Structure of Glycosyltransferase family 55 protein:
Amino acid sequence: MHLIEVLELDAGSGIPLETVGSAYTPQGSEQGDESSLDDSDYDDLFSDEDEDMRDLESDTDPEDDESVLDGVPPEVTIPQAQLDSILGQMAVIVPCKGEDPNTIEGVLSGIPRGCLIVLVSNSEGRAYRKEVMMLRKFCRHARPALAIHQSDAAAAAAFNMYGLPDLVTHVAGGSHKRIRNGKGEGMMLGIALVAALCPQRRYVAFVDADITVPGAVNEYCRAFAAGFALNPNPGTETMVRLRWASKPKVRNGEIDYTCEGRSSQVVNRWLNKLLSAMADADPTGSLAAARDSEIIVTGNAGEHAMTMDLALSLRLANGYAIEPFHFVELLDQLAPQNAAAATAAAAHAAGYNAGRVPNLQPVTIMQIRTRNPHFHRVTDDSHVRSMWASGLGSIYHHLPASLNSSTTQTPSPQPSLPPSPSSSSSSLTAFSSKSFARGEKLRGDILDFLADNHEENDNSKGELVHEPPRPRIYPPVRQLDLDGFREMVRSEHKTLYCLNLPHFKLPRPNTIAPVYHHQYGVTPPL
Ligand code: GDD
Ligand code: MG
């Protein structure tokens, strides 16, 4: 399994590390004493008792090391200046709902200074006021930030009028509209807000508001930036997804540093089965390495980041289905018969998966394992269950086109083995029906899994649940007329706060006088 790992949280000056046996040598480093060491010098380092250690050293051939990624140096330090430059173009969206403002403040304190903070709240009204007070205080030293509430009627009207009405619903018992409840919906509001108000932010990241270790948040943001910096296909749209070192649980008064969250265990497994089915259905064989693999390890990655263009281009799912559905959406766009196949295969070999957005741009997905344990609000079993069920629903109800009867596409002939005109039509039919059967088998297996894991009261009505829930899938945010959205939100907003963003003025009092320029003599990025 290929996964990029954080080796050191702060690796210093930015000189790539030397890797023994690698063609990748340190830039600008002096070989010095080290280059004059020969084997006997190394022998001196070990006593007889260290036989095992020496065997280990001699057995290790970097060529055989699965962690060595094509196109990416095996071990590399990202220069601080490069990280800072990316972080300075990043907006970090923090969806929150009912967290203690002190906890949220802890999260904000971990977000590097260059990043724009975007708090999207769905807390109840009075709590939002406290959150904003906390944000104002936190940003008092000229920190740029945005805050908005998901019930903002102006934002809802703007979505409704300018291209994304699906995101909006009537308030129960009221006459006005609001943005639907759900984490995914809050994230979409955040994406639209950044794209409309701060268009120069090229990257958008998501960090939960209930993380209780600020240092972890800091590592996540820097890992996002490192992922963008490491992209071996510069210029491609990129998604960086994090896998935590551990997700600790307290059991019998002791902390158990368990590696994989309960929902992730299930969702990763089924996403990998989906990938495997796609590999089986791929006539070119370019996805062969994905068959029976465990390559997807970040199916539920709440902490992830994207190039803004990608965030605007993807269809997104509601609530907690948003992260697993990213994979389903990208796999749906994967066209193994053409240029994307080469990207996919190369990307797979290098430790990330690739897909295509509808405008046919290749997409690189970087999966990174961070170092800090991930501590957050404890959730109960039914919450976890509904989370993995909605992940399975993303797969079950939205099989990618190549496995789906109604949308199965006929493959184009492979350049190396062009089928004869007479044989092509029947072989394509056979291919389509086999792919369909694979898709149906996967769906059947998901139903079996649900039946095996059935619990009393699986839904509030106590009905037997035969199928996983069908996620609501929203069109890409790109569909929104951003100018119209911005002007309506600017003029009619009820809950929007813009702190220290001198380029964007609100006509009504929520604006806080920009102090950045006076204090620092420079203008922050938009
Ligand atoms: N704006 C907004 N609106 N935020 C919300 C909403 C909403 O309707 N619902 C939840 N949130 C916020 C929470 O306040 C929290 O900061 C974040 O979204 C994650 O919600 P949790 O309820 O803490 O989710 P979780 O910890 O069970 O799951 C997290 O990790 C999973 C991976 O293990 C989420 O990030 C999942 O999306 C992720 O799959
Ligand atoms: Mg949480």
Remarks:
- The first strand starts at residue 4 and ends at 5.
